[in-house]
Write a structure and sequence with these properties.
By secondary structure, the chain is an alpha/beta fold. It contains 11 helices and 6 strands. A 6-stranded parallel sheet has the order 2-1-3-4-5-6, with helices on both faces.
Length: 212
């Protein structure tokens, strides 16, 4: 049974979601809140698997609530349901720890898919939100796109040299660092970029324009 809390500053919207989910087997609405602070108070009393959270709420907005939920209730998944298809909100909530982001004009089927996917530990973004993410990402210059992967300047330096077929010793000599440091950067790059091997790192470097 998926235990769900709905948080939105419009009671009518909460009632509408509850109505949509009323007869859905395997999902139970265990609480509701009108702002971020109420969500935190409710989670202290009522265990839940997922919080269905609006972005724009009084007293504590969705981004701040998401950060606090991730800190205090790390097992609780957060699914944003909002009218804002804005890349700043999307990236802000992704960075804060939200597992999904769907729009309020979504249908019942997509809402159920999102709830079930997030509950399984997956991420879920509605089609419109995915398009917003891709459009914004494709417009960024290469260095900003590398920043989006949270690479440090030194990691970008190492990545460029890897893509240029420098070996560990050559990278160490070029950057005046130890071979152990080079290997540490290589491991961090593989982890951050979720690449399986050096070929994956080279592919990223080319796609982002770090090397031609």
């Amino acid at each position: 049974m998926i235990k769900l809390i709905i948080a939105d500053d419009h009671q009518m919207f909460i009632d509408g979601i509850k109505s949509l989910l009323m007869n859905e087997k395997g999902i139970k609405v265990v609480g509701q809140a009108l702002n971020g602070k109420e969500v935190i108070t409710l989670l202290d009393k009522e265990p839940a698997d997922i919080v269905l959270l609006d972005v724009n709420m009084p007293e504590m907005d969705g981004i701040e609530a998401t950060k606090l939920i991730r800190q205090r209730f790390p097992t609780v998944k957060i699914l944003m349901l909002t009218m804002y298809n804005n890349h700043e909100f999307v990236f802000g909530l992704m960075n804060a720890g939200a597992s999904g982001y769907i729009l309020k004009n979504t249908g019942r089927t997509e809402l159920l898919d999102a709830i079930k996917s997030v509950n399984e530990g997956k991420t879920f973004y509605s089609k419109e939100v995915t398009e917003t993410i891709l459009q914004n990402f494709s417009k960024k210059p290469a260095e900003q796109r590398a920043e989006a992967a949270h690479l440090t300047e030194r990691e970008k330096d190492v990545l460029k040299l890897i893509a240029q077929e420098y070996n560990t010793q050559e990278i160490a000599a070029e950057l005046f660092i130890s071979t152990n440091t080079v290997e540490t950067h290589r491991k961090n790059l593989l982890s951050k970029l979720q690449a399986k091997n050096i070929a994956g790192l080279v592919k990223f470097a080319i796609q982002t324009g770090l090397v031609s």
